[in-house]
Write a structure and sequence with these properties.
Keywords: Metal-binding
Low-confidence stretches: none
Radius of gyration: 15 Å
Mean pLDDT: 94
GO molecular function, one term: methylmalonyl-CoA epimerase activity
Order of helices and strands: EHEEEEEHEHEEEHE
Distance between the termini: 29 Å
CATH superfamily: 2,3-Dihydroxybiphenyl 1,2-Dioxygenase, domain 1
InterPro entries: Glyas_Bleomycin-R_OHBP_Dase, MMCE/EMCE_epimerase, VOC_core
Protein name: Glyoxalase
CATH architecture: Roll
Pfam family, one: Glyoxalase_4
Number of strands: 11
Number of domains: 1
CATH class: Alpha Beta
Length: 179
Amino acid sequence: MSIFFGEIRQLGYVVDDIEEAMAYWSDTLGVGPWYYNPKVPIRNYEYDGKAYEPHNSVALANSGFVQVELIQTRNDVPSMYRDFRQAGRTGLQHVAYWTEQYDADLERLLKQGFKPRMSGEVGEQGRFIYFDTEYHPGTVIELSEVAGPKGRLFDLIRETAENWNGQQAVRPFPDLDTL
């Protein structure tokens, strides 16, 4: 538990081959099922204050209470993921904290001196922001809004993992507009 953020809810891994990474996590570690989106629909994406159109593939699964996120960049758009890869790294890139009070938490963190680096939205009430906080690999902090359909998706992923029997290890992302 963080006295500043609450519980770490997600571990974000940047990988070279997301299909291979899903297979490793499910076949070797027994983590799954994976909800896979080959092109995450990110709106209002900004990196260092400039707008871009990223193409990222993402897979999500839970191991207990913690969600594991696998991320593969598919284009050369500036991002903290790309920076991580260009530094020669793969593996844990960020930890995420989830909130239903995004505006209040963001304001509090900005007052504490956290500096935004990358942000966007995935679905209604699904904003996210990454802070320029990487003091060593894997310590970038993400604040992720889960008040809308993205939060319902995360609940579905956790609930599905609780009774997963190892079958159907990879599943498509549901449409966030229908959750």
